[in-house]
Amino acid sequence: MNKPSVLLADDHSIVLEGLTRVLESDFNIVGTAQNGHDLLESIRQLRPDVVVSDLSMPGLNGIDVLKRVRAAKLRTAFVILTMHTDTEIAGTACLEGASGFVLKHSAASELPRAIRAALAGDAYVDPALAPHGSLNFLYPNGNLRRASPDLTRREIDVLKLVAQGCMLKEIAGILNISKSTAGFHKYNMTRKLKLKTTAELTQYAIKHDLITGVTTSTSQEPSQVSFRR
């Protein structure tokens, strides 16, 4: 049975060596990269099942590469590896489509779990992040299934509220964002989905079972940090 292919990226060779030792028994390490531009090119050439990328790298950082991979419609799953415990950074990665977020100091135990979750279509957030703030805003409702591969999770939250009949001012209050930000998300959805009216957005939400289940940033932390996508 072929092992899943994994591409590693970090600007320190000693880290890459350590990650390879941790993962090579269960995964096929198809390559390594030490900057964002090389990583992007390696992804295009090797098409790995999963990329494990450091957040901070020369040229392009991990999230920059992730954005370009998603824009190119490549199906490689992404696990972000970092020293930072800032949940806002984790949230940015998750909203851009990362399947996992793992802290470097716990990589030996948590990274294999995150990769397996990504391969299964799940998402995984390092449990060590839980004490640093609510994880609900990372993966709202514990439900990571996207109505469209082009929609961010925040856009899906806005879509759900639009379908419930909420006005932009109400959406802004519920999600703790500005009215202009809510309007920007709505505009982006209509552009991405090639729809024109609120009624069409509502029909789309109904079709994809997105009428209920919006979680605000003030809700309680979830009991688990590994959720079904």
Structure description:
It is a single chain. This protein is of the alpha/beta class and 229 residues long. It has 2 domains: 5-132, Response regulator (Rossmann fold, 3-Layer(aba) Sandwich), CATH 3.40.50; 144-207, Orthogonal Bundle (Arc Repressor Mutant, subunit A). The protein has 9 helices and 7 strands; from the N terminus they run E-H-E-H-E-H-E-H-E-H-E-H-H-H-H-E. It has helices spanning 13-23, 36-46, 62-71, 87-95, 107-119, 153-163, 168-175, 179-193, 198-207, and strands spanning 5-9, 28-33, 50-54, 77-82, 100-103, 122-125, 226-228. It has a 7-stranded mixed sheet with strand order 2-1-3-4-5-6-7, with helices on both faces. Strand 1 (5-9), helix 1 and strand 2 (28-33) form a beta-alpha-beta unit. Helix 6 (153-163) crosses helix 9 (198-207) and helix 7 packs across helix 8 (179-193). The longest helix is centred in the C-terminal third of the chain and has 15 residues, at 179-193. The two termini are 25 Å apart. Mean pLDDT is 80; it is low at 132-149 and 215-229.
Features:
229 residues, alpha/beta, Rossmann fold, Arc Repressor Mutant, subunit A, 2 domains, 7-stranded mixed beta sheet, 43% helix, 14% strand, elongated
